[in-house]
Amino acid sequence: MSVCLRIAYDGTDFHGYARQTASDGASGRAPSERSVRTVQAVIESALARLYKQPLTIRAASRTDAGVHARGQLVAFDAPFVIPVVGLVSGLNAILPADVSVLAAFERSAAGGGPFQPRYENDGKHYRYRIRCTRVRDPIRRRDEWHLARALNVDEMRNAALRLVGRHDFASFRAADCQAKTTVRRIHTITCSSKAAAVGPSSDPGGLDAGDPATAVDLLVLDIIGEAFLKNMVRIMVGTLVDVGRGKRSAESVVELLHRPDRTLAGMTAPAAGLTLVEVLLRTPNVSAGPISSGDAGSAGSAGSTGSGGHEIGLSTAAATGRAASLRTTQIERIAALAEQGRGTQREGEHRTDARDNGEEGHEEVLSAGPT
Fold first, then answer.
1. Radius of gyration (Cα) for the chain, nearest Å?
2. Among residues 64, 143, 222, 242, which one is catalytic?
């Protein structure tokens, strides 16, 4: 049984999630033992202080430098028991201000052994924020792309529909991506726009004065899928922005799915605008009792579930509704786990969450049909 932590962090001041060592510069010498600041290194350091020994965590997603998270999922094998509330409170007391532990619970792999978040999840939900106002928002500058120009949101939505489903996303990956296959399945993409002026829009002389009822100051893209290639979401966003700016048509996105060529797609959008909202956790085998020792057996890496079967065609509204329901379930489950953890600490006994709805945990594609 492994211990899982739900993690949030501001990625601005991190060199990405994964632990790494600093280079000695252009001298060509081997990397030094001095570690650069990464999310993994910071969390492992906090765990070492609590458990009085080095521990290694396993993550569901290795976010790039500058990318944020509100629902990252990591797991580790604890050497001894720490109650849930004590673990969460203790870690948050040690961690720096740009990292928080939101919840802790026990989890076992499908076949027993240590839980592997990277492989045993139901997908990921990413969100990208684009500010279209001419004036930047100094308060949200760390988690928005300040594009400073108007976008045709309707055309972007039209193009986004063509990315939903199971496709070859070779045109939407970084040049150094080492994934063995570039076929991925996207469940939903939603584009939400709203008026969000940086300050009072009625002030005379403002650069962004306009009708708040029709203004598109902020564009938010929510992308939910099974798995993603390196930089895939950011390249998708850059391509959709090209559509919104009139530099390419919505129909041209289809060609990118049939011609695997990175040079044909849009730019890689800045990291600052991207947030990993949630790693979708499968339902079975969750416990919110005291954190116990991990299984000493070998790792049971189940790998990703197959993507066979026919695609299911749903309207955009139905796809969005189903995705929202899935996210709500995850949030309710985490809240329930936290409440059970509080009860466990008060009563001083181990409780096992017996809820198991028997779901396979693998989503068929929510393919948004044409409007």
1. 22
2. 64
